[in-house]
Amino acid sequence: MPQTIEYEEIKSIMPHRYPFLLVDRVTHYEDDKYIEAYKNVTGNEPFFQGHFPEKSVMPGVLVIEAMAQAGGILLLKNRMGEGSLVYFTTIERARFRQPVIPGDQLRFEVTVLRLKANYCKLSGKAFVGDKLVAEAVFSSALSVK
To answer: Would you say residue 1 lies in a domain?
Structure first.
């Protein structure tokens, strides 16, 4: 059965806040296995003012960051404690396949490849509609209190 997490609960899980909280909603997750999350991209995002201002394109590194935040939600959901954090340690095989622009809705699919104590390796994909726009494999360290 799909499990959802709305924005207010995401804020209780993640320490990030505007403008760096980049996940709006989770529509499905399986503990320590998989998460599907969304980011609505609007023209009001602060990065659009300086990143190709004549042709708004979401920076690829922020697409990867949003994907990693979805993974962080998955990892922290059942390990929450005040001060718990997930830190990026590596990004591998990142590919940017199509620009993301205002009006797009990013859908992230993140899968746990390996989870050991405080280390995790994840595979993430970002889609707009059915089109793959970015993908990466990344590792994270968990600091759980």
So the answer is: no
